[in-house]
Design brief:
Helices cover about 75% and strands about 0% of the residues. The chain has 15 helices and no strands. The chain starts with a helix and ends in an 11-residue tail after the last helix.
């Protein structure tokens, strides 16, 4: 390709808003996928669980409808993040359904990959012909359906295999893998990427899912409590029930503020796996949510109920509740504050280092 052709291609891609970048695909699209999962599978599970516990059939039915559209919800969320035109965006509903269904347990990752390709192809042809209302959805759906049949089973199997390997390793070595999973997923939660989407894509549940919950809670509760003197109640709620990602600007300025919650996650992870054997047997996306809207804790609870219904668990015990409280709230708060105070005295963390704008 000569310089003139290269320039023409660059101008075309710019005009179509097609940007090949790690940020757009690895951060924007991945984060949007997690929101689509939250607005369908996750909230549907919560609604259904409330309906089952309260004996309200309407809630059970409503939750079932929400869970049934998780594939389309993810796809349209990804398309929105890629700034797809309306016809492309609406056509992605079919693409998401196909990729999620054919991807099996690793469906979310298949939806992410296939939707990105289908959306960009749809954007490329959008408004290029006089029959755009036919061409754009035709290209988007056919590309998405073809790639779903071609790629989704393999992508889903590979993602599920990786998740199964992590879960198997955690069962085999709960102490070391408890530390590894807790720290890595917790760090992912605070970074501008989606820990929830990663857990969903890998179908990360069981003991490894419990370690992931521990790591996410350590970051959220840790930052919320150790920065209380700077941010007071507003910061406590926004970080503790919202996201520790709010601290990313401060982390860039002083990376040492990340040490206390990360050390806390390295401690709570193996406590979750080795002492309380806390498992996330609810939706895999809940493993990466931490205390955001208490979704992680609700996921653990729904997992208990599922285990009881399956006959693998007799009942929810007081030790279950004690473990949940310690791992998700008490230990992250105490440990993070303890480590933070040491770093403050060492001069590594100074006044207003944790202050939110």
């Amino acid at each position: 390709m000569n310089g003139k052709q290269d320039s023409a291609l660059r101008q075309f891609l710019k005009r179509k808003n097609i940007v090949f970048s790690a940020r757009r695909y690895g951060i924007d699209a991945l984060g949007a996928m997690a929101q689509g999962l939250f607005a369908s599978l996750l909230i549907g599970t919560i609604i259904s669980t409330l309906g089952e516990q309260a004996g309200i059939p309407f809630l059970v039915t409503a939750g079932g409808y929400a869970k049934a559209v998780s594939g389309p919800a993810m796809a349209i969320s990804i398309g929105y993040a890629l700034q797809a035109p309306q016809l492309v965006l609406f056509s992605l509903l079919a693409v998401g359904q196909a990729a999620n269904e054919l991807g099996g347990a690793g469906g979310p990752l298949a939806v992410l990959v296939v939707t990105i390709f289908a959306a960009e192809c749809g954007k490329a042809v959008s408004k290029e012909t006089k029959v755009d209302i036919l061409v754009t959805p035709l290209v988007t759906i056919l590309v998405g359906a073809a790639l779903s049949m071609w790629w989704a089973p393999g992508i889903g199997s590979a993602a599920n295999a990786v998740g199964q390997l992590i879960m198997w390793a955690t069962e085999l070595q709960p102490f070391f893998m408890g530390i590894f999973v807790s720290v890595i997923v917790g760090i992912a939660l605070t970074l501008p990427i989606s820990s929830a989407a990663i857990c969903a894509a890998l179908n990360l549940t069981g003991l490894a899912g419990g370690a992931a919950v521990a790591g996410c809670c350590a970051q959220m509760v840790g930052f919320a409590v150790m920065s209380f003197r700077e941010n007071r109640w507003g910061g406590l709620v926004s970080q503790g029930l919202g996201t520790s990602m709010l601290q990313m600007g401060n982390i860039v300025k002083n990376p040492r503020i990340w040490i206390p919650p990360t050390l806390a996650s390295a401690i709570t992870g193996p406590i979750a796996t080795c002492i309380f054997a806390m498992k996330m047997n609810g939706p895999a996306v809940s493993s990466g949510m931490g205390t955001c809207g208490l979704v992680g804790q609700i996921g653990v609870y729904t997992g208990w109920l599922s285990d009881i219904a399956a006959g693998t668990k007799a009942a929810v015990t007081p030790m279950d509740w004690i473990g949940l409280a310690l791992i998700c709230f008490i230990l992250p708060a105490v440990l993070s504050c303890f480590f933070c105070e040491i770093l403050r005295r060492m001069g590594w963390i100074k006044k207003d280092d944790l202050k939110l704008e």
